[in-house]
Structure to design on (1051 residues):
């Protein structure tokens, strides 16, 4: 706080008036107790003398102020200015609160000292100017001297309090003992009894009022600190005020002794609590040792000499002498009261029922017991002997729900502190403490869970207790779930400590792993002795693991497990563990990288002393590894470096099929199916199976009595049928072909078997007669009905088995489109097969389904083209479909000419892509991502431009209208050399034969560039078609300057 520079009055009269006002404010003789501090009283005394000399004597001795010498006038103006500033400072002592004055005592003192010296100097000047008034001069000189020699001081206590308050303004945290000492110092500086809290509170409120207009952060922090200290000290310790409220019924005749209040000298002046270790200072005051030490530390930290808080005496020695006599008296009082509290608590807890409405009384009992055990450890035996441990355990067992989570927390706190007593610990263990603590791990409050975990931590330090905790149902799972929880970090750390204690015990390794804590098991597996590794591998093999756990374990232990396969004693457990880990698809790469395949195949193909069980495990593990395409295709399976798709490996598997157990047979079939399904290995694997007479071996399992054998035999047969349909049909004729139809129609068979049977029948090379006799009209009806049913029930989502079934059923219908006679044509029209194929193009399906549907449309469209051509001839041709001319396309009165066939196609002929509205769906397929689908779509659309007769232009115009030409050109400009390019350019070349099309498309530079690239880099057919197309576009010259009009077939 800084004082402003005094402003000098402009005239002598103004100076005199200012002096009068200041002196009138300062010189109030009637109020002797106006100032509580010495400094303002001393200055007021100077003011009284100044009033007599200047007002009563000087001004009466002169005629007027104007007659005063110039020096006197200057002096009066100076006195007026400094006296006004000093009066303002002095009056702050009276107007502001005492705490405000203490906070600013140094700045106030400095201000008074400064202005007093200034007034003394002005008086000396005035003295020299009054030569005609010797008596007055002497008095003024004396006052000037006295004021010049005056020393305004801040007392040691005031300075100490100011320093303390300024430190408090820095926001430091303080203990209760230090807070009490601060209030004692403050009260002493204020002249108030330290026990007079009401008066101290009044002073704090006055200080708060002073700060209403203050913007000082430090002052507001001091206020906040004082308010906090008073709030804390206002709470009386329980040991002083508490009387155990047992809430006995009024008619209860039992006499309950009451707790006696402590003598005043039992209480520490700082903590206001009964002392446990009383010490005496050189000031003869007794304090709690820890409390007074806190105060000494604060004094030294603040740079001041330690003092006695009660007396304020600065201490020369910090020696703390134990007060043995007082300590003995306190101990006797404490023991007497503890005895009363323990007996009363035991009586209350021993009541037959706990009233739900009297939780407050029960809480007081629990708090009392906890405080006794925690603060007076030597009295724990009294709590134990009174049976309180058993009573609290019974409370948790029998009244857990009724008392609620808050009181359960209190009960757990008691058990936790009593667990430090070994005898009590034994009682708890015998009474099932671990089960009670584990039950509280799912408590609704964090406090309950915290004390439950702390209890488990306390008991987990003993090995036998660790085993007991681990054996409790759900204990490890609950603890593991707490670890790493960011919402409750303290609880997480406690749970982690408990689990670490559990890990020390070997018997807990498996339970911990079951709970998802694998680190102990994995560390022993990777770093332990061979016997330990084998034991850990055995545990892994028996466990049920999640996929996440399998991946974690495989990354850390797969190499160790593979190495254990070379140890005869470790082979079985390590095989079981590897088989378990291989159940997660993503672990296949890990197991392959660890050289697992050679070790597994050695066991599988070993002839000597290898048990069937080991072979089964090895085969099952390999089957899991190859269940999905991946890293294994490039991995060696033996020392010779053979791959899994190699002939030697395939032949070995086929030979092994006849001489192993049923379960091992299933695993071998799974291996064959897995490697045959890989896009990278399929071609070589199926070829090796065929050359090793595997087709006969595998089809023999189709009728196996075991379901798993049949399932994988069907799967493998389906894969083989995709490449060797003719060979497979020869193997299955004549007896086994009907088996697939029966399996497809059998609702009792698995969905996988039925869909595989459908695909196998679809892929077989069947003759026309076999199609009629084996399948027939009724089967077509069932197939169409099944397709429609699945389409309606899919709702846009299609499972993999359903897609495979759709693929198979479409393939079966495709058989009927390859050789149409009178009977099959009737079936086609009756069941609207063209519509069925077209609908499948719009169905969310895999590429193979779209490809089959497009091929079906192509076959039917070709047949329709042949029939339309035959219908236009005067006599029926002798070629394909010649017997059917009368059934399709004979013009009727109602029919209209078809732009594709140049004939009157019936609206429902099921042989015309235009009339069946299939062209747009095929055009959409040109943008499909699958090349096979695009090829099939181009082939189907190409049937529309096979004939270049008079109707050709109408067909091309229809394609343009449907957007097919633009789509074809876009596809051609983007496609790479190959089959798709060849088929697309064939169709484009046909389209460019139409005059208006070649004129229009001749301006398409992208098309021209693509044709030039095809001419350079395409195969022979592509180059020929590119040359013809460019000739039609007049980009190059053709033979005789004209494009060839010969219809070149691209088939």
């Amino acid at each position: 706080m800084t004082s402003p520079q005094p402003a000098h009055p402009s005239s002598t009269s103004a100076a005199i008036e200012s002096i009068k006002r200041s002196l009138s404010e300062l010189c109030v003789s009637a109020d002797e107790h106006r100032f509580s501090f010495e400094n303002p009283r001393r200055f007021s005394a100077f003011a009284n003398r100044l009033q007599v000399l200047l007002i009563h004597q000087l001004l009466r001795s002169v005629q007027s102020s104007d007659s005063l010498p110039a020096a006197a006038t200057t002096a009066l103006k100076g006195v007026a200015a400094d006296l006004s500033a000093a009066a303002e400072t002095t009056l702050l002592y009276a107007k502001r609160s005492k705490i405000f004055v203490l906070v600013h005592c140094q700045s106030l003192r400095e201000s008074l000292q400064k202005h007093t010296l200034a007034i003394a100097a002005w008086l000396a000047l005035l003295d020299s100017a009054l030569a005609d008034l010797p008596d007055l001069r002497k008095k003024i000189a004396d006052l000037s001297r006295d004021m010049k020699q005056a020393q305004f001081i801040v007392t040691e206590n005031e300075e100490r309090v100011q320093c303390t308050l300024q430190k408090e303004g820095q926001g430091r945290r303080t203990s209760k003992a230090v807070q009490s000492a601060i209030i004692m110092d403050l009260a002493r500086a204020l002249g108030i009894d330290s026990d007079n809290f009401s008066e101290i509170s009044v002073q704090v409120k006055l200080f708060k009022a002073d700060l209403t207009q203050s913007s000082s952060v430090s002052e507001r922090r001091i206020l906040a600190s004082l308010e906090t200290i008073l709030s804390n000290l206002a709470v009386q310790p329980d040991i002083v005020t508490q009387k155990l409220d047992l809430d006995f019924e009024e008619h209860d005749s039992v006499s309950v002794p009451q707790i006696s209040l402590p003598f005043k000298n039992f209480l520490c002046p700082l903590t206001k609590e009964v002392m446990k270790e009383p010490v005496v200072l050189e000031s003869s005051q007794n304090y709690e040792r820890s409390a007074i030490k806190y105060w000494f530390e604060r004094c030294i930290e603040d740079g001041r000499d330690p003092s006695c808080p009660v007396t304020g005496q600065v201490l020369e020695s910090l020696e703390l002498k134990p007060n043995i006599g007082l300590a003995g008296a306190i101990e006797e009082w404490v023991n007497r009261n503890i005895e009363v509290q323990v007996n009363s608590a035991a009586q209350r807890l021993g009541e037959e029922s706990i009233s739900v409405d009297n939780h407050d009384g029960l809480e007081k009992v629990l708090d009392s017991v906890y405080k006794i055990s925690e603060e007076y450890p030597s009295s724990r035996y009294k709590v134990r002997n009174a049976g309180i441990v058993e009573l609290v355990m019974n409370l948790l067992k029998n009244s857990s729900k009724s008392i609620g989570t808050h009181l359960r927390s209190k009960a757990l706190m008691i058990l936790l502190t009593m667990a430090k007593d070994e005898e009590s610990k034994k009682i708890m263990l015998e009474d099932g403490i671990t089960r009670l603590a584990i039950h509280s791990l799912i408590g609704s409050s964090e406090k309950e869970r915290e004390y439950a975990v702390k209890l488990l931590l306390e008991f987990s330090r003993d090995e036998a207790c660790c085993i007991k905790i681990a054996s409790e149902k759900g204990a490890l799972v609950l603890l593991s779930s707490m670890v790493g929880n960011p919402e409750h970090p303290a609880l997480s750390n406690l749970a982690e400590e408990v689990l670490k204690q559990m890990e020390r015990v070997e018997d807990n390794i498996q339970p911990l792993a079951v709970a998802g804590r694998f680190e102990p098991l994995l560390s022993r597996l990777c770093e332990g002795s061979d016997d330990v590794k084998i034991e850990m591998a055995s545990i892994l093999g028996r466990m049920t693991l999640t996929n996440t756990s399998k991946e974690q374990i495989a990354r850390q232990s797969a190499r160790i497990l593979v190495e254990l396969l070379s140890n005869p004693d470790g082979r079985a457990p390590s095989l079981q563990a590897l088989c378990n880990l291989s159940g997660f698809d993503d672990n296949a790469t890990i197991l392959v990288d660890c050289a697992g395949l050679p070790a597994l195949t050695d066991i599988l193909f070993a002839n000597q002393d290898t048990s069937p069980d080991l072979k089964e495990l090895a085969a099952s593990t390999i089957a899991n590894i190859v269940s999905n395409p991946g890293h294994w295709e490039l991995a060696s399976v033996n020392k010779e470096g053979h791959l899994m798709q190699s002939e030697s490996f395939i032949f070995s598997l086929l030979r092994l099929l006849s001489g192993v157990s049923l379960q091992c047979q299933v695993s071998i079939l799974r291996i064959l199916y897995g490697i045959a399904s890989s896009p990278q290995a399929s071609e070589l694997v199926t070829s090796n199976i065929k050359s090793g007479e595997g087709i006969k071996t595998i089809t023999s399992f189709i009728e196996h009595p075991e379901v798993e054998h049949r399932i994988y035999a069907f799967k493998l047969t389906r894969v083989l049928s995709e490449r060797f349909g003719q060979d497979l049909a020869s193997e299955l004729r004549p007896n086994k072909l009907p088996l697939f139809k029966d399996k497809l129609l059998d609702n009792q068979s698995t969905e996988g078997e039925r869909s595989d049977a459908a695909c196998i029948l679809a892929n077989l090379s069947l003759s026309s007669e076999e199609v009629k006799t084996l399948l027939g009209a009724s089967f077509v009806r069932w197939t169409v009905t099944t397709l429609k049913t699945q389409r309606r029930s899919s709702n846009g989502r299609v499972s993999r088995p359903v897609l495979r079934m759709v693929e198979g059923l479409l393939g079966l219908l495709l058989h009927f489109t390859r050789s149409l006679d009178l009977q099959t044509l009737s079936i086609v029209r009756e069941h609207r097969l063209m519509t069925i194929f077209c609908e499948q193009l719009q169905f969310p399906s895999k590429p193979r389904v779209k490809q089959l549907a497009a091929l079906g449309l192509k076959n039917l469209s070709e047949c329709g083209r042949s029939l339309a051509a035959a219908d236009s001839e005067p006599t029926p041709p002798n070629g394909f479909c010649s017997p059917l001319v009368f059934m399709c396309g004979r013009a009727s009165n109602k029919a209209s000419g078809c732009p594709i066939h140049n004939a009157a196609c019936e609206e429902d002929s099921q042989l015309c892509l235009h009339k069946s509205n299939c062209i747009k769906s095929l055009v959409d397929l040109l943008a499909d991502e699958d090349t096979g689908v695009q090829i099939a779509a181009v082939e189907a659309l190409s049937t529309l431009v096979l004939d270049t007769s008079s109707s050709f232009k109408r067909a091309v115009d229809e394609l343009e209208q449907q957007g097919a030409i633009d789509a074809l050109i876009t596809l051609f400009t983007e496609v790479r050399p190959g089959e798709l390019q060849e088929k697309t350019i064939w169709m484009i070349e046909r389209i460019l034969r139409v005059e208006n099309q070649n004129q229009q498309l001749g301006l398409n530079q992208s098309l021209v560039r693509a044709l030039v690239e095809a001419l350079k880099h395409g195969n022979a057919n592509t180059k020929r078609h590119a040359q013809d197309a460019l000739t039609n576009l007049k980009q190059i010259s053709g033979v005789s300057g004209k494009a060839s009009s010969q219809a070149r077939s691209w088939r």
